[in-house]
Design goal:
Strand content: under 5%
Order of helices and strands: HHHHH
Length: 125
């Protein structure tokens, strides 16, 4: 990440679509924020490094995981922008859907939650 940031010095606030090749989504995001999104929102949320989605040194080359990530970003945008606002009883500052919400630092989303073997907790009223 640091080496890429050094390569774009002076262009950090330009749109990612102008600074980098083959940006399909997030074209208008400032290049610095775009890189942060790759590192934090995608990389850390899935426990990945750049090479999981990119051919290192040829970051504009598409790999299977990069194509999947784009489709998942479209899905995330749809949920956050279209479906969540329809839930009128949500608090005004509700949590947005993100990669980390399901992946929790691993490649495979967590499809289950641990089941307690003890007695069910009683909810306070």
């Amino acid at each position: 990440m640091d080496s890429i940031l050094k390569k774009i010095v002076g262009r950090e606030l330009e749109p990612a679509g102008k600074v980098f090749k083959n940006v399909v989504l997030l074209k208008d995001t400032p290049a610095r924020d775009f890189l942060r999104k790759m590192d934090v929102d995608y990389g850390r949320a899935l426990g990945w490094t750049c090479s999981n989605c990119h051919v290192v040194g040829q970051f504009d080359t598409d790999k299977k995981n990069k194509r999947i990530a784009r489709q998942m970003q479209v899905l995330t945008n749809y949920i956050n922008g279209t479906e969540l606002p329809k839930i009128t009883e949500l608090d005004k500052e509700y949590e947005q859907v993100s990669c980390a919400m399901c992946h929790r630092g691993t490649n495979e989303p967590k499809g289950t939650i641990p089941v307690s073997t003890g007695p069910m907790p009683i909810s306070p009223r």
